[in-house]
## 1
Amino acid sequence: MELTGEHTHPHHLDVEVLAEPQRLPWLRDRLARWFRHTSCPPDGVERALLALNEAITNAMTHAYRDGPAGQVRVSGQHRGDEVVLTVVDEGRWKPADPGHGFGGRGVLMMQECVDRVLIEHSALGTVVTLELDIANGSDGSGRNRGVHRIAIGGNRDGVVVRVWGDVPDYAATLLRRQLLAATCGGVVGLTLDLSHLGAATEGASMAISEVATAAAGVGGKVVLVIPPESLAGARLQGFAEDHELVDVVESL
């Protein structure tokens, strides 16, 4: 991967790349690896990566759309109980269409994911600053959010996410943000494999409902894989049958 520049430290990250969409997966992976050096809990990491994904994607898509790709610089600082992230471009923005980019849905998604969002436009470009408080756990509850785990893959229809373990009600936010991050905010098709779901499913129901609503906003649906022999999955069968925004299959 060709980089303009990179500087990393357990408390600092500074990466600069050309604003080309194909570089986004590598950049996201690089940011995820840096986050492992901070004290940010898993839920906070997922939220920050989702907000960063939105900010970087918008910069790559819109900042240089009237000319050749310029630079996008991503910086991160771990300051005690806070992580501060910035995304900087040197492009020229035009007003976004309603509901798109920094003019609508993008800002709302970033504001939901992190504690503070600041966007500054100038003749020199755009600076997006994202601040995440991590003092007491990313949701302020101090509870362990790592109840379940996921694995992300793909198929011809989009992303396949497999879920293992319990998803109680308080883990709904984490699962929802993980699924939104995996599907770029619901834009990419999602198949959710619940074959190994644990006995606690309340949080899964809540997360699936919200992600399905996001997917429906761009004309998509969520596909749930619930094998007949899955006892936990059977608890979601009724929910799925009553939810018009999801489809159910027995296997991948």
Note: The helical segments are 24-35, 42-63, 105-113, 172-182, 202-216, 231-242.
## 2
Amino acid sequence: MIQKGSRRITRRTVLAGAVLSIATRNLAGSGLDPVRLKIGGGEIDVQFGAGAFDVGRDGITNWISDAAKAVTTYYGHFPVPQAVVEVAPLANKSGVFGGVTYNSLPARTNIEVGERTSETALKDDWTMTHEMVHLGFPNMPRRHHWIEEGIATYVEPIGRAQAGTLRVEKVWADMFHDMPKGEPGPGSRGLDQTHNWATTYWGGALFCLFADVQFRERTGNRRGLQDALRGILDEGGNINADWPIERAFQAGDKAAGAPVLTELYAKAKDTPFSIDLPTLWRRLGISASGGSVSLSPDAELATIRAAITAKPI
């Protein structure tokens, strides 16, 4: 049974959802044995619908394994003891067409992948990692979906960079390009009260970026949002826990050593949340350079920028 508030939808799944719900019905009758992955102290059963991928089942399981390793690298261990990933093949299509993660027992992700998808496309894809990041934060009511999706949007590329599967320059180039989408628009009433796509995903991600920098500034770069999220998870705050947002933020602040999440939430929940992004990029040493960005090692917060994507010791 899927409970209210348990449905997570990635940045790409709004239009794909109807297809996803139909395609995954064929999984049980596919006759294919699941593949079990053991990563980061967790077990992931990968189940396949009827169909044949150009990259083979090994190519799909390698993609899922890379995502699980990225999430394990970021959190220190896989967020749940057991998870199921149901892969629905789409005939004559290429690409990943969306995923949904549920707080069932065990946690379950349904994801659609075109049968013609190449290995290169899978290596470049963010969707599976985004979905697995959802496993590492408590289940929230609808008004707080911005923090669930914001964390998944922000953590996904950082986890991949820390695991060595995404270039650091790509992380910051994408953030430089996409973070402005999270700035409040006309009629914005704060993160809890504004439920459009941009606020839910990029407003939440902008909250996470600012919190990360704030933690690091206030702790002498010793701790950041990663420490806060690890602390929440270590207290049992995974996808199968129904927590108030205040409890999650208090646990995160305690772990990271500063009341950043609690204070920031008080400012942003009911009023438009905006930060001076040009100034933040300048302090972090990130500037536009043609179609990409350049990263200055001499900027005021260059060491913080480097610490955010550095592999944990």
Note: Residues 1-26 have pLDDT under 50 and may be disordered.
## 3
Amino acid sequence: MSLAEFIRQESLILLDGAMGTQLAAAGLEMGGQNCVSHPDAVLAIHKEYAAVGCQILTTNTLTMNRINIETHGIGVDVREVNLAGARLAKSAATGGQYVLGDLSSTGQMLEPYGDYSESRLYDVFREQATYLFEGGVDGFIVETMLDLREALCAVGGCKAVAPLPVIASLSFQTAENGGRTMMGNSAKEIAVALADAGVAALGANCGELDPGETAAVVAVMRKCVDLPVIAQPNAGKPRLVGDRTIFDTSPDEFGKGIAQCLDAGVRLVGGCRIGRRTCRLRRREV
């Protein structure tokens, strides 16, 4: 069964949780560069998510686009790191599990607020999607986006590369007033625009919301479009302790928030700043 068919037919799909926080727990710097520098560590995390029952794994390539790599001086080759990320996740997937190639923000602002045009971002995302497709992914996920325009550039770039399903998810600053991103995009506006762009599923992840607030945002999106909705909240609101950002919601509380997301009509659930223990609990509850 193709991933597109799986998304259309399944009433509930369990995605994986965070990669970066698990790399940090292993004493490594967070980021996709680990696909090249520490592939065994990345593979081990993928395998543990697969072992606890996640049906879809996500490549460790979140910001491995050319603009982000070059502007942040990450020092990896764009093609090498995305191919490695795709192949590591694919090698961890067992029978019936799928892999999404992960794309996210360039970290730069679009015109007129910044120096980058939509056509430039489209080309950068298309390049990254090309290498992920070459690595064998079953579909793409555009996630943790703050700007709807940038998200649409990424969706378009993915769809130009291959006839694979594209999931798109934005990060919200607030659940009030219909949900708003940092750039002021509303949940309704986002849902309608992404549906028009031809995504296979859409929703919310990460951001400044706890799981219950994420449920409120995705409920708005669910009412706007006839598409599967995804929710991948953090384990609570981010809290700065010293120089560390902490997400300290317990697995029990996180599970209650995921239940609220399911009540809101979500069909794909996962986590952002969470770990494998939370995935195990959530698997039992849903």
Note: The domain at 3-285 is CATH 3.20.20.330 (TIM Barrel).
